[in-house]
Design brief:
mainly alpha
């Protein structure tokens, strides 16, 4: 469980860096599967630092999946949003409301319940049908990303987030289906499901962070990476709880995921202080004044005659000189 929590810390911190980098990258084609956007994001140090933390988190995740049930690891990874909230509050000076601090506490309480109730990982190794099904799901994740590019922004963000979470869930299950790292693993469809699902999830999550509501995308990702893998672990891989503590594990799982969803807004990058919101008056002053735009000047009424004033028109005659 310690490794799962360590992975959550890495992923939660990385999400802040990657969200900022994805939003500052030049807009791409708008497709859900936008490799050019990913390449542009890779030129930014924040995104690279986030990838480094993701790599460390992935190693810790693999260790955790080899020792505790998938449902406990999934809930811990969803709790990375609590880490993101705390990191944003400290580093980016984002203010957490009382309800949001309560949500952080709820996530911690749910993880404590899971830690007390979860047993060892199941002994099931999975069938060939499960491995092939996992590979098919990874392919569907990529296809869903291509379709999501044509949807309106809000639906697009939710679909991309849900698909990205499903891709990360494929990785969680695939780790359990790969017995060892050797030449024999090349014949295991779960290895290719891991590579395809993980790669597709990164592409889709980057696209979701770049355009649309990141809060919506993050909520979809949390649901996608927790519920499905937990069901697979219990139904097909033999994951169980401690004797008589199933109710505590279920309660802890629901509480931890629910608290994480309440903190989904912390997938958003911080507001740009140089933008219009930084003007204390609410609007930026136009140095040229309102008359600088010719199109904004009201049209003159020809029936009203020349306007009054010293510059109303040409002088009536030559200036008067001294009397002869």
């Amino acid at each position: 469980m310690i490794c799962a929590l360590g992975a959550a810390v890495c992923f939660g911190t990385a999400s802040v860096l990657q969200a900022v980098a994805a939003r500052t990258a030049e807009p791409g084609t708008g497709s859900g599967v936008d490799t050019a956007l990913l390449l542009r994001a890779l030129r930014q140090w924040r995104y690279l630092a986030g990838l480094g933390l993701d790599g460390i988190g992935f190693v810790l995740q693999i260790i955790a999946l080899r020792h505790i049930p998938i449902y406990a690891v999934g809930a811990a990874l969803a709790a990375s949003l609590a880490v993101t909230a705390v990191v944003a509050a400290r580093l980016l000076r984002v203010r957490l409301s009382g309800a949001e601090w309560a949500a952080v506490g709820v996530v911690c309480a749910g993880l404590l319940m899971l830690g007390l109730a979860s047993g060892e990982e199941g002994s099931g190794t999975g069938s060939l049908a499960l491995e092939l099904g996992l590979l098919a799901v990874a392919g569907l994740v990529l296809a869903a990303g291509a379709v999501a590019g044509r949807l309106p922004d809000r639906s697009r963000a939710l679909t991309l987030g849900l698909a990205a979470g499903t891709g990360f869930g494929v990785v969680e299950v695939a780790v359990r289906l790969i017995d060892d790292i050797s030449l024999s693993a090349l014949a295991n469809p779960a290895l290719y499901a891991l590579l395809l699902g993980g790669g597709a999830a990164f592409l889709l999550l980057t696209s979701a962070l770049q355009r649309g509501s990141v809060t919506t995308a993050t909520a979809g990702m949390v649901l996608g990476e927790t519920i499905g893998p937990a069901v697979v672990g219990v139904a097909w891989l033999g994951d169980r709880t401690r004797e008589g503590l199933t109710w505590l594990a279920v309660t802890g799982f629901v509480i931890a995921v629910g608290g994480a969803l309440a903190l989904a807004r912390f997938g958003e990058p911080p507001a740009d202080p140089a933008g219009p919101a930084a003007d204390p008056a609410g609007t930026a002053a136009d140095p040229a004044g309102p008359a600088s735009d010719p199109a904004a000047a009201p049209a003159a009424d020809p029936s009203a005659g020349p306007p009054a004033g010293p510059s109303a028109g040409p002088p009536a005659g030559p200036p008067a000189g001294p009397a002869p």
